Batch of 3 targets.
Target 1
Amino acid sequence: MVTLKHLSVEDPDDYSSPPVPDADFTEITAVTVTHRRPTPDTREMLLSRTNNLALSLVLLVGCYSAILVPALIPSDPLSGANDNQHTDMVLLNRSASLLVQPCHPGWCVSRLLSLDSSSDLQNIPVFLQSGIAADRPIPWDLAPPLGLQGCDERVARALASLTHPGLPPSLGGRGRGGGCRRCVVVGSGGVLHGSHLGSHIDQYDVIIRMNNAPVSGFERDAGSRTTVRLMYPEGAPLSPSEYRHTSLVTLVVYKCLDLDWLTSVITKQPLSWWSKLWFWRDIVENIPLKPENIQILNPEIMHKTGIALQRYTQQQRKLVPTLGASAVVMALQLCDEVSLAGFGYDLQHPGARLHYYESLSMDAIKAQVVHDVNAEKLFLRELVAAGVLTDLTGAL
């Protein structure tokens, strides 16, 4: 009985407590009930329950906020995504409706005549050939790319290496079988990214691209065929795959040495190491196309384009147009109807995508000082407003 008393009154968590005097069993029970303190485990359990309750309330409030706040306040990213999807559908519908309509012969020429500022942008020979200087005012007194000053011997060698200089039979007349022909000039602008216009682009009679703008891997937005690729040596695609489904590559002469490069590509005679030093980046030494699929752009195209741009700029120097603007003027010589895709720089949003094939931002365009992109945008915008051109991607 004594042992039971001692076991009952001794605090198992405090072994230093003095023993309780002897008492009967009833008294021991009373003492045990009256004087037992909460153990540390009990206190921790109470605190844990309090913390869990507070945490549960916080989580509950957070869940309700996550559900109710988006419903009450529209989310900007989601709204932007819906707007983009709506814009894409508008562009696709516009492009599809244009393609199902019959082609209008002489459409661009008739519209150009209504513009005094652009009436001289027609009947320009597109490709360079022997004897063209005799009956056309080619600006031989201007340096490339607006002329061919100082390039006489190199021009002669390059033309001699071409098997069919001048307008190829495939581009003669108008359209397939001599009918009405439609052109699309595919720019490199980021607006083309996600456009899904590739299948529409492939339906045009003539598809014009510039420099190394890639096709492989971007067929959904940019299409898969190329009729004419305008390029200079440093801008020529390095990958052989980019020349697949390409009918014609056309050299744009920016310096007389570019003609030596073209002759080397055609004749398979490599350039000297000294000549290679004058190119500002690596150049392709072999193009997997036959000589009959290579041409030289008539510099009068660049010259006339530059004159047209001068009306839209405050710069006094002679403007060097981009290949994109020059390609548009070239297309006006080849086709009855001309559309644009991937044109227009969004300079109001510096973080926007500059090109459809890379993540470079719009800020990078500020680094270039050769071209006047604002003047070109005004020039193209006026042609679109006059109905000369159709802007498929709507960024002008």
Target 2
Amino acid sequence: MCGMPSAESTQASVHEPDPVRPTKEDEVAAAGSELIGGPLGRRALLGASWWTPVRVIALVAIGMFALGLVQKAPCYNGAWFFGASSQYTHACYSDIPHLYQGRGFADGLVPYFDRLPGDMQYLEYPVLTGVFMEVASWLTPGSGTIQYQEQWYWMVNAGMLMVCASVIAVCVTRTHARRPWDGLLVALAPAAALTATINWDLLAVALTAAAMLMWSRGRSLAFGVLLGLATAAKLYPFLLLGPLMVLCWRAGRWRAFGTALGGAAAAWVVVNGPVMLFAFEGWSKFYTFSQERGVDFGSFWLIMAQNSDDPLSTDTVNTLATLLMLACCAAVAALALTAPRRPRFAQLAFLIVAAFILTNKVYSPQYVLWLVPLAALARPKWRDYLIWQACEVAYFLGIWLYLAYTTSGDAHKGLPTDGYHWAIALHLLGTLYLCVTVVRDIFMPERDPVRRSGDDDPSGGVLDGAEDVFVLGPAARPRRHVAAQFDGPPVDWGRPGPTGGSL
């Protein structure tokens, strides 16, 4: 009949629920939306106009990235070159222009193959990041003063990193299909805008975000390949394989994990193999440098060292940091197997990377980029996310003011050592706070924003709704999780019904 919905459209409405409205379920998002005209309507959520969530969030991410470039303007206009202290007082420092000449790109040296002058000897970055840096040098004009070339090199890298930032925002937006607007957490992250062009970490973060998207779509091989490439750009992405293995163990999805592991190993070998074979000494510099590097900025190890008359040796710190990290890995594994309901992949991915950051002997300010997309997927709650971001912004300012203090001579402009220790503590407490909220969500799934809206594990791919086959402890029982009409907590099909049977 005319005007009556068809059977197909009725069925589609049952199986294709509306996206989650952040302004309806999150009081901070609702309050913030008043600045742009109030909560989102149904048409905006469904993408009825050209302004779909993906397009809006991508443009917001580009806009925030551009603001981060503006924040670096004082350094671009001279502080990088003419004043060691002023690049810190303006909080606009970046490794990129300094390493253009310092790592041989200005002289046309080939990374890993050509020896550098000075103590560094070889480029101390993973291979794929080295390729990224080399490509940017090819696009940099080779004429003019060295300052002019360094400005161009930074700008070329900024353009390439902006693409990475857009990829991250889009991938997070598409990972949780019913929660596209959670991508705004990534796009609007102030700490990400401030640290995006300090170094080249966004390349590995973008590849990791793309890998998470592929896993959420059930594409295990693509996930593995992208994660292997991410690990070839930065070390931390391989950590995600640990929690994924334990979750696949609990769900009995060994085939998917094996495919992912094989893809990751193959991609890493393809990138690293040729350099390992023909320039092993240059290739290994990243790993030996990481091992030999002493206690450095941002870690609790630095607070201990600067308050001790007999600080621990580098070898001792390496051993203790490794043991701490292994303990955290064991804790995450136990959490995955004993939780009353199988944790979401994004939750454990966030926890394991956060553990690495908290226990590591160095925390550079751009490392916050590693956690930004994982935090948005693990705990999409604006209040908690902004508390953590505020702590990271405070640390960003604290480290540059501390360096200004140490480089300003007798003037002592900036933050003294004790003040910097408080900035480190604030970063550590902010990250720990977000970890605690994620762990609480795991033990109390009804408080998890993702599961409260009716999903099981939208970033989990083959794990989403899967039946548990192996658990530990009395709190966890094998069960199958199915979303209950997308408007409440998932149904536990393993729970006895009123008559003693299964629901």
Target 3
Amino acid sequence: MSEQPPTSRIARTRRFGGLVAGQGLRWAGTRAANALRSEEAADAATGERAAATANELVKQLGQMRGAAMKIGQVLSTVEFTAIPESEREEFKNTLATLRDDVPPLPFKAIEKLLKEELGTPAASAFSEFEREAFAAASIGQVHRAITKDGREVAVKVQYPGIAEAVETDLRNLQMLFPLVRRLAPGLDVKALAGELRERIGEELDYEVEAQHHRAMERGWRGHPFVFIPPVDTQLSHRRVLVTELMRGRRFDVVKTLPDTERDRFGEIVFRFFFGTLTHLRRAAGDPHPGNYLYLEDGRVGFLDFGLMRVVDADYLQGERELAQAIMRNDARAVKADLARLGYLPKPDEFEAEALLGQLRMAASWYLDPGRRRLTSADVAALIEEGSSPRSPYFAQMRRQTIPPQALLIRRMESLVFTTLGDVRAEADWNALGSEYWESAPPSTPLGEQDHAFWQR
């Protein structure tokens, strides 16, 4: 079991301030020493300093629940071009999996909060309540319970004091700007910070998450292969979220299944996230495999909709037009679309053909036609190819940024790709994707079922 996370504003600010000040001094020392080094030795020293900074960033964020950990998870989608390529992927993976290493708090640490939210002790509000949590993440943990009318539910409880800790972390976020700029020179950190503040602020309020969850459940209700557990609105509150308990095979088990089942699972994951974006205009920012369950009836159940953005219809249409321009190999349209969407701070600095080449390379897994079985090695190779200093697109990538509305879309794509590689799923990903960005006809039996559902 873990001790309660520090919530003191001073203590948390000291963590951020100490990290930034210490690394600032070390960067200054590296720059001073580089003045006496050859260009090659200076580049190597700068890379070593960037790697050390990245490791310290992971260490500090991993010790703090709340927004600090969530900041790390979102940063996992950013290309940290200053970190040596040999260490970059490990760093991003570590950031992405911060949520996996969170031990739950003992029941006595959350007992008072539960009583405050429910208006009565948990033992009175439920006929049964398991005191030991079965899952924990950056902002809360989950307990199994049985309601008074006999329904099995999952009770997500926010950590006591975490609201104040998150507020402090978000105020302190600007302290990290100098470090993040050194690790990712092309990133618009102010836009990133604004998006993080808005999204994490919403995630902290379980009533907002419940609204997202209910919207997702209504949108996918009755779907032939996707299931969202209903929310218990009477038992849910600002710091407690109660949903129907799902039982099924977790991701580690799914990875051991035969090819046909893994392929089906992978196609469902792809269709769920791209379908959510297309039909509901919602970008789910946390498509983590820990939030999927392969149910016994063949459906896949999905959880956790705290980190979510409703994308403007015009912006989403712009993203669709960008994908269509890439598919047509229309370099001029690609550049114009990227500029209009906000990816190019100074459009005149970019060559259209180079931008097209970069995007075709980065999204080749779902832009190249034909069936393809993805693996973790494929994911690592493509990410390395897209972020290596040896890439012909490296210099232009450093001058690009991620628009706020695209942040969770890009995070969704990245983590879905990683999930498909982990589960070793095979499909014609281009044919599947074309159903969403080009309104192409269904390409698989699952696609026919999905199309019929959304035509209701």
